[in-house]
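Deviation from plan, reported transparently: BES complex.
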Amino acid sequence: MFTSISVSRKGESEAVAFAHFQGEKPDSRTLALAAGLGLKDALTAAASLPEATGESGSLAESFSQGAKGIAGTRVLLIGLGDKTKFQVGALRNAGATIGRRLVAVKGRSLSLEFDGALAAAKADVHASGSAAGEGLGLLGWVCDEFRGKATPAPKRTALTLRSSDADFANGLSRGLALAQSTNYCRTLSQTPPNIATTGFMADQAKKLARQVGLKVKIWEGQDLARERFEGLINVGKASENKPCLIRLEYNPSNARAGKPAVLVGKTMTYDTGGLSLKINNSMVGMKRDKDGGCAVLGAMHAIATVIKPRRRVVALLAVAENSISDEAYRPDDVITYRNGVTVEVTNTDAEGRLVLADALCWACEQENPGYIVDLATLTGGVITALGSTYAGLFCEDDALRSKVQSAADIAGERVWRLPMHQEYRDMMKSPVADILNSNPNRKAHAGQGAAFLSYFVEDRIPWCHLDIAGVHVSEKNSGPFIEGPTGWGVRLLANLLDAD
Ligand code: BES
Ligand code: MN
Ligand code: ZN
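Because the crystal trials were delayed, the predicted structure below was used instead.
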């Protein structure tokens, strides 16, 4: 919605935003701040409007006295909700609310002066700035690439942000940068499957590696057979767009000795279901079956450009197109994995777990991981269970789970723990091979997916599986998101590495 957003330390803004809480007038510190900027009357006027309720999402507007015939400074008073329930994440929505208003009024510059309100709520100023920056930055996402001549080009402006509080301004910069990484992920998600092919994803990874300084390796063609990546080979067989495994590595010169974090992403550039073809139009939207991998790419972008942890991070993307042809893999096929586990294919539409298994085997065997986190649009079942409100989290390691939970809380990307149990693992046993890829009993689909994956992760390695099928896309305008891809997971993973 903006051509670009940046933070400036100098100059004046056309609009200044202040904040207050539900049922409260702006506090004395906020009024003093406004007075210093010559905006006290305008702020008091905004606060006296009936819409200045302080409820989250409320917005009241007034102007300072300008020169004759010219409007003065636009004052925006934003509500942060109930002070006793305040959380920093409220600033993400506040940023988005202000951003939507600025788009409507074609605003070009904005100062955020939340010091008084943040002090009243005893909130962390830097984290608040970051959340506000995320809200504005996420709202700013545009993807016009696929519009043609029949759509008039929208007029967009660049937005400059300011704050008289340096700590808040630094937070804004961080939040904007994280939003940029997230928006990169969203643009990849939005890219249609005739363009975002398997080869395209490999090219994107190479480009990212070049731009931000990561090591990159891609296994394709005969490399896959040599390394026995049988899941990728089989799932990808029917498509002229050939499968590959992408490995990216962030290894800073100041890295501490220790095991790397390994991030794994399901990257199905399209999922027709294969021979177990998707029916009743359920194929539409399956260009987004690559969003686990896109989130991992976005996270690597954030890690290399914003977070810069002193820890090695390895990303593995299992990339394939699940298509149909006479060469397609079939229900009844048996696949032997490099860790020796054999899988009877019962449903070619349960393909994500088959390609993730290759990446998980490799990670455990070759990367000596401190922990593994995988992201995958794995099951419709998780949408039935949790809707678009939470991603499904499967993790039996208490320490890793609490780290992921904290990172999710900071990002405002909700996760809900779902159970792993030996009974789910038993449900995956096959009468023919070791395990099957889907039990036709239609029970606990999300849990079946996690149970299947567990056969490819060594017990000693902390592992977290996030099923993001319900959260990677939004059906409506909400908070900083518009209808379309959310980039879910980029900020969670970035925060996870930030805390490491
Ligand atoms: N990519 C789908 C899961 C999915 C469904 C993602 C809807 C986003 C929206 C996955 O490959 C799939 O087809 N899963 C099947 C598994 C079943 C055949 C065992 C499902 O959940 O229906
Ligand atoms: Mn599928
Ligand atoms: Zn899929």
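Residues 184-498 form a domain with the Aminopeptidase fold (CATH 3.40.630.10). We consider this an acceptable substitute for the interim report.
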